[in-house]
Design a protein that fits this description.
- The protein is mostly beta strands.
- The protein is built from no helices and ten strands.
- The protein is globular, with a radius of gyration of 17 Å.
- It has a five-stranded parallel β-sheet, with no helix packed on it. A three-stranded antiparallel β-sheet has the order 8-9-10, with no helix packed on it.
- The N and C termini lie far apart (51 Å).
- A hairpin with a 5-residue loop joins strand 8 and strand 9.
């Protein structure tokens, strides 16, 4: 069962064999994780695609097989629930404090613009020449 894990919800961390330091809150949260470490999953089926990945945060998102070191908040599109065959609805709005459009300085004093990929929902910086 691994060490330092917390699971609340039917089948949360249900297949974990040796993954450590995981937190799963919600029905089927991290339900397929077997050996991955350092996850936080909040919500029904959150992180349920992860099996051996590490260091992910999934809030209301099933995750993506093979990814590590990723934060996923909400669903960009409808997601098929891999644990029971139903569908999980897409989220249509997000409000995050502290993120501003405009210019942000980089470590080397170059200027960057904060933007979002409207297909994936990923935030990123674009260098300004």
């Amino acid at each position: 069962m691994g060490n330092q894990n917390t699971a609340i919800g039917d089948q949360a961390l249900g297949t974990n064999t040796s993954g450590n330091n995981n937190t799963a809150l919600g029905e089927n949260a991290l339900s397929r994780l077997t050996t991955g470490d350092n996850h936080i999953a909040l919500g029904v089926a959150s992180g349920s695609r992860y099996t051996t990945e590490n260091n992910n945060i999934a809030i209301a998102n099933i995750g993506v097989v093979g990814e590590s070191n990723t934060i996923r908040l909400g669903r960009q599109a409808i997601q098929a629930d891999p644990t029971n065959g139903g569908n999980l609805p897409a989220h249509t709005a997000a409000f995050v404090a502290g993120i501003q459009t405009g210019v942000a300085p980089a470590a080397n004093n170059t200027r960057r613009f904060v933007t979002v990929d409207t297909t994936t929902g990923q935030l990123f910086f674009v260098p300004i020449p």
